[in-house]
Design brief:
Layout: E1 20-26, H1 40-44, E2 49-52, H2 55-61, E3 65-69, E4 76-79, E5 84-87, H3 91-94, E6 100-107, H4 113-122, H5 132-140, E7 150-153, E8 177-179, H6 201-218, H7 224-246, H8 254-259, H9 268-282, E9 287-292, H10 309-330, E10 337-342, E11 346-351, E12 358-361, E13 365-371, E14 378-380, E15 382-383, E16 390-392, E17 395-396, H11 397-407, E18 417-419, E19 422-424
Parallel strand pairs: 1-9, 1-10, 6-14, 6-17, 7-8, 7-9
Antiparallel strand pairs: 2-3, 3-11, 4-5, 6-13, 10-13, 11-12, 15-16, 18-19
Helix pairs in contact: 6-7, 9-10
């Protein structure tokens, strides 16, 4: 891939199945064995002490540990025409299982939130690397020159923070644009300094023309920093007239807002985030990340000692996500939009320290995809009979990245950028496309 910085006119490597991604990031790690990965043995052997390859124990001592199995706190049943097993933790999402593609054999790098979250977003646990959204924007450019091509809604300041939507060594025009931040009510979320409340439009135009002429006078061929500044100023100018409407949820009907749970205390915040994502997708934003989390080092779904808290978080996101899926489908957007749901890892099938919660589990967990070229009503891969280790149809996070890029028409081995004397890519020297899930 050439190192040019244009945001328009990019061609995919091959025919694409999807045009954009909406990533629903469940920060902290949802328990797969309490949601979408049904393991009858956990009900049968609840409270039994067994020896397991505990990731934290191995990292500290080089050997496993004895742990107490803990059954799921939510009951499982079959849903949809496909009869997919899922718990009643997400009853609204369960109504859409026939549209979902489950990856039950996921595994990743990093047992702590920081490294695992960075790996999810950038393909590395520690180095400064471009985020996935930046790679997508660099590879495909934008569909709408009046809006950012990569937007992250309510991002967290912790566990990677801006690095999770940063461009690293890619040109600055490929970095993500944050809308709001974690902990701030979504109804107050906007793009900072979008509107000028001091100068009239004709005065702003004069200022913009002056800045453009000054930048053009300094620009030199190949000067990526100046080119990025010029491009960012011009995008900002165009956004002043387009972005406010894109983020204005009052333009949506009452019925649509109700579909997302907007106006109801529990679901209002994440409902607004999901509806905002649909509006941005509809207007051509390539990569949209919707974050459910907070700014602490122990993020939302991180229930080490109080697993019932999962129920509170599920209540906040279940209806909005189901609403998003229904809304995309009825508008014909799900056909060329990939919806990706998941966290940085899963959780253990045993109680942490024999308590009331579950520890981190990077060795086996579930994510699901919907839309844009994946098989609907399908499940790929499996964890062992406890839900601890991925054993069949294993999909590494590098593989998931490669597959998502493939669906967008990008070859992960060709989507490279030369920096410091070598070519870099999102998947480093790893990853393969999971063709079993392609429609």
């Amino acid at each position: 891939m050439a190192n040019g910085q244009s945001l328009i006119g990019h061609q995919p490597h091959h025919a694409a199945k999807a045009k954009r991604i909406i990533f629903l990031f469940m920060q902290g790690g949802v328990s797969h064995v309490d949601s979408f990965d049904y393991k009858p043995r956990l009900f049968k052997d609840d409270q039994k002490i067994i020896d397991v390859a505990d990731a934290r124990a191995i990292a500290k001592t080089g050997k496993g540990a004895s742990q107490r199995l803990m059954k799921p706190l939510w009951n499982f049943s079959q849903h949809g025409e496909t009869g997919r097993w899922a718990s009643d933790l997400f009853p609204k999402i369960n109504q859409h299982v026939d549209d979902l593609c489950f990856l039950h054999g996921m595994h990743t790098e990093g047992v702590a939130h920081g490294p695992a979250t960075l790996f999810l977003h950038t393909g590395t646990t520690s180095f400064i690397r471009p985020s996935m959204g930046s790679w997508v924007l660099q590879g495909l450019g934008t569909e709408n020159e009046n809006l950012p091509g990569f937007v992250t809604i309510s991002p967290s300041l912790g566990n990677g923070g801006p690095r999770n939507y940063g461009n690293a060594f890619l040109p600055a025009i490929y970095q993500g644009t944050p809308v709001g931040r974690s902990g701030q009510p979504a109804k107050e979320s906007s793009i900072k300094n979008l509107l000028n409340t001091v100068w009239k439009p004709d005065q702003q135009k004069q200022q913009f023309d002056l800045l453009r002429s000054l930048n053009a006078a300094q620009a030199k061929p190949g000067d990526s920093e100046i080119e990025a500044v010029i491009e960012s100023y011009e995008l900002a100018w165009r956004m002043q007239s387009k972005a406010p409407d894109a983020l204005d949820l009052s333009l949506e009907s009452e019925a649509t807002q109700k579909l997302y749970g907007i106006g109801e205390k529990i679901t209002d915040n994440f409902g607004r985030q999901c509806l905002m994502a649909r509006r941005l997708a509809e207007q051509g934003v390539r990569y949209i990340q919707v974050n459910y989390g907070d700014n602490s080092n122990n993020p939302a779904w991180d229930q080490h000692s109080n697993l019932p808290k999962h129920g509170d978080h599920a209540a906040a996101v279940d209806r909005p996500i189901a609403g998003l899926l229904a809304d995309l489908k009825q508008r014909g957007l799900l056909e060329d939009t990939i919806v990706w749901w998941g966290g940085e890892f899963g959780r253990t099938p045993y109680a942490e320290k024999n308590g009331t919660g579950r520890d981190h589990n990077p060795n086996g967990f579930t994510v699901w995809l919907a839309g844009g070229g994946v098989k609907a009503g399908f499940a790929h891969g499996a964890t062992d009979e406890l839900g601890h280790m991925a054993v069949d149809g294993k999909v590494h996070m590098h593989d998931l990245h490669a597959t998502l890029l493939h669906l967008l028409g990008l070859d992960h081995e060709k989507l490279t950028f030369k920096y410091a004397g070598r070519d870099f890519r999102l998947t480093d020297v790893h990853g393969h496309v999971v063709r079993e899930i392609l429609a």
